[in-house]
Write a structure and sequence with these properties.
Shape: globular
Largest sheet: 9 strands, antiparallel
Number of strands: 9
Strand order of the largest sheet: 1-2-7-9-8-4-5-3-6
Oligomer: single chain
Order of helices and strands: HEEEHEEEEHEE
CATH class: Alpha Beta
Helix content: 25-40%
Number of domains: 1
CATH architecture: Alpha-Beta Barrel
Number of helices: 3
């Protein structure tokens, strides 16, 4: 009986530790320039990402992509150097879309780009080269996004619903789409659902 209680305490402690882990990890810098209900317009600072692309169902591609990029930051690189973990991990469909029309979601068979943002003190020149040729380092300038933040489990239906809300908002404001929806996951998988931070964002045109 007591070992069951002890195991429960350990599991609960691990679940509550998830939000602390994500808060301690470096996160991309941004400025909120507008807010309407649960939607924020954010201007993000330039960043470098490590990116890998996998085909197939979203959850499977996310797991494969996470492992590949995690291997890179844990030392599978030219100098066997560890790179600090950041939050969030992001995932985006890599299909080409029309930039003048609402973004649409697609079913199985798409390719998914999974990205970790690199710590801000690195440059492309100072980051170690990935040993895995599938892992690419990319640099982005400052960008503007419409973003919805939510807690709970990031199931397909929930992600698509929030993406649709963002698309409707962007259309209603006569803004221009610049990307497919991007899904962001901030917490370890053992985090209790109500303590999780997830986001859906879409890049839009705007002044930086």
């Amino acid at each position: 009986m007591w070992w069951l209680i002890g195991a429960g305490v350990v599991l609960l402690s691990a679940a509550l530790w998830g939000p602390i882990v994500s808060r301690r990890a470096e996160q991309p810098k941004y400025k909120v320039v507008a807010k309407e209900r649960d939607i924020e317009i954010r201007d993000y600072a330039p960043m470098i990402v490590a990116e890998v692309e996998f085909p197939g169902e979203r959850n499977v591609a996310l797991g494969q992509g996470f492992r590949a990029v995690a291997d890179y930051i844990f030392g599978d690189n030219s100098s066997s150097q560890k790179v600090a973990m950041t939050a969030p991990v992001t995932q985006q469909e890599s299909e080409t879309i029309a930039m003048t029309a609402p973004v649409t979601q697609h079913g199985d068979g798409d390719n998914w780009r999974v990205r970790f943002v690199m710590p801000s003190h690195y440059t492309l020149a100072s980051l170690p080269t990935p040993n895995n040729p599938a892992v690419k380092l990319k640099e982005f300038g400052g960008r503007r996004f419409a973003v919805i933040r939510f807690s709970g489990l990031a199931r397909d239906a929930v992600l698509k619903r929030h993406a649709k809300d963002l698309q409707d908002f962007i259309v209603s404001k006569n803004l221009k789409f610049l990307s497919a929806p991007i899904y962001a996951y901030y917490n370890p998988p053992w985090t209790l659902p109500f303590l999780r931070r997830n986001e859906v964002s879409i890049e839009i045109a705007g002044e930086q």
